[in-house]
Amino acid sequence: MSKTVLTTLITACLLTMVSCGGSQHAVTEKYILVATNVKVPYWQLASAGLNRAAGQFQVQAELLGPDSYDPKAEHEQFLAAVAKKPAGIMVSVSDPAALKADIDNAIAQGIPVITIDSDAPDSKRLAFIGTDNYRAGVMGGKIVAEKLQGKGSVVVFTIEGQTNLTERLRGYKDAFETHPGIKIIEAVNMQGDPRVAFDKAKEILEKKTKVDAFVCLEAIACPEVADVVERQKAVGVLVVAMDTDQRTLDAIKKGLITATIGQKPFSMAFLGLKLLDDIQHHPLAPLGKNWSQDSFAPIPTFVDTGATLIDKSNVDQFVEARNAATAK
Predict the structure, then answer these.
(1) Separation between Cα atoms, residue 43 and residue 11, nearest integer Å
(2) Which residues pair with 32 in a beta bridge?
(3) With the C-alpha atoms ordered 66, 69, 73, 74, is the resulting torsion angle positive or negative?
């Protein structure tokens, strides 16, 4: 073999890195995560997990979505993601009804789609990676019941129509079933707007409504609620939060929030890219098959990434672990 031909073959191997035993990934291989409210710390942790996995596999990754809670804008961003013809899409579904057709159409075009954080179970998505939200609700409900000693009035802050939050609320209600002295007196639809949570908590406390506990089913409400509790000097009102916004952690240290249920968005995005990568290089045939009903499916239907109860006893430890995981 001539030196020129040998050099050409070696160069081809280095460029493709596939047939000659190198990386199976092309430099153009890209995975996209679509969410909403992407500037909140929760999604920044997910972005860190996404980028960590992309770095390990030497592929491209991108986080898309509106800066505020906006299901319509998320729908538009999902369509933009599909138009880029990526190797796979992860999506946290703010409105299952709005995104079901989008997900199904992406699958029909041959683009693998999995959901993380919040599911669209009636769509053709291939898998869901996230918290067992019912169990997270039960976990929170047990904390409330223990701290209230089985008796009290509870106000819940949620976002109507979001599957993960509906499951958390169901968990709380079931946890309270064995404590008939605990009543949920109101479920506030804060519509993804922290100002609604602040104003409603302020209204409740100023009216001297009997409330023993505030419960937040998502990340951005309880920092506002804790702020109101501090301003109103509402000593003794229990606050149980969701997720690990820095303001939530600071409020735990100050004693304004009793505990929060920490999810694992870093893990969700990291595992999501790994699963999509595996599907890319070991294609499912047919992609649009209802794999959740196949007892011998090569992919899981649901991966529970778990949840952690964070309170004063372990908040500093959590911050240290978070900083280490997100360090560049």
Answers:
(1) 40
(2) 62, 89
(3) positive
The CA-CA-CA angle for residues 306, 307, 312, to 5°, reads 155
Residue 90 near residue 271 (C-beta atoms within 8 A): no
Extract the runs of DSSP E, i.e. beta strands, from the chain.
30-34, 60-64, 88-91, 113-116, 128-130, 151-158, 181-189, 213-216, 238-242, 259-262, 302-304, 308-310
Which pLDDT belongs to residue 326?
Answer: 85
Q: Between vectors from CA 226 to CA 224 and to CA 232, what angle results, nearest 5°?
A: 105
- Is the pLDDT score of 109 beyond 90? yes
Q: What is the CA radius of gyration of the chain?
A: 23
CATH for 23-131+264-306 (3.40.50.2300, 3.40.1130.10, 3.30.1220.10, 3.30.450.40):
3.40.50.2300
Nearest to 217 by CA among 265, 253, 171, 183: 171
The pLDDT tens digits for 31-85 are: 999 999 999 899 999 999 999 999 999 999 999 999 999 999 999 999 999 999 9
